[in-house]
Amino acid sequence: RDLVGTLWAAGVQARLDPLGGPVQEPVTTGFWRKRLKPLQAAESFSWTDTLEWGRPRAIPGGLEWRQPKDQARIAVRFLREGEAGVLPLGEYLRELRGLGSVEDPHAFSEVALSSAVAQVIRYTKPVYPEPYLTGSVKEVFVTEVAVVPGQGGYYVIHYRARREGFRKFRAEFLRFRGRLRLAPPARP
């Protein structure tokens, strides 16, 4: 988009065609006067707000978005290997594989994300609210986690929603995830 009308446009298009994938439509705002939504930056990544869920909340290593009625959450974090409490990438992936219920496949799939290959896994988890006896009332949450290796650590992208609303909000999550630009954090 930035190189339209330059001599680079043909070369860039020739490189993008074999890679495939859908052409991304620009994200605009406004009804009469459409403007491009700006790319917003965090410490370790940038994004275009396609969710319209409000301002993200700061969490350790990244940001979290919550759907206004708290029916779904999305978190993007960069975990630096070697920091206290951060597992090496291989151990983290093994731990993810063990999460969830017995019915879950416990297998990773690969997805292209921000010009990198992400390992994606989905699992379910029942949660028993505090005032009730265990087993009497439960909510089942479905979580999809994408892990992308980065320089000096790895990115973790969580999407979590109640089982009945998982498909409904997943389309919004996929659109948001497609607009993420993962880049290594600035060195101190």
Plain-language structure description:
This protein has 188 residues and is α+β, with helices and mostly antiparallel strands. The chain has helices at 8-19, 89-97, 166-178; strands at 28-29, 35-36, 40-41, 45-47, 57-59, 62-66, 72-80, 109-113, 116-127, 139-150, 153-162, 181-182. The strands form 3 sheets. The protein has a 7-stranded antiparallel beta sheet with strand order 5-6-7-11-10-9-8, with helices on both faces. It has a 3-stranded antiparallel beta sheet with strand order 3-4-12. The chain is globular and about 65 Å long. It starts with 7 loop residues before the first helix and ends in a 6-residue tail after the last strand. The mean pLDDT is 84.
Please state the CA-atom Rg, rounded to the nearest Å. Answer: 19 Å
Question: Could you say which structural class the secondary elements and strand pairing correspond to?
Answer: alpha+beta
Low-confidence stretches: none
Strand content bin: 35-45%
What percentage of residues falls in helices of 4 or more residues? 10-25%
State the helix count.
3
Main β-sheet: number of strands, strand sense, barrel status? 7 strands, antiparallel
Output the strand order for the largest sheet: 5-6-7-11-10-9-8
Shape: globular
Question: Layout of SSEs?
Answer:
Blueprint: H1 8-19, E1 28-29, E2 35-36, E3 40-41, E4 45-47, E5 57-59, E6 62-66, E7 72-80, H2 89-97, E8 109-113, E9 116-127, E10 139-150, E11 153-162, H3 166-178, E12 181-182
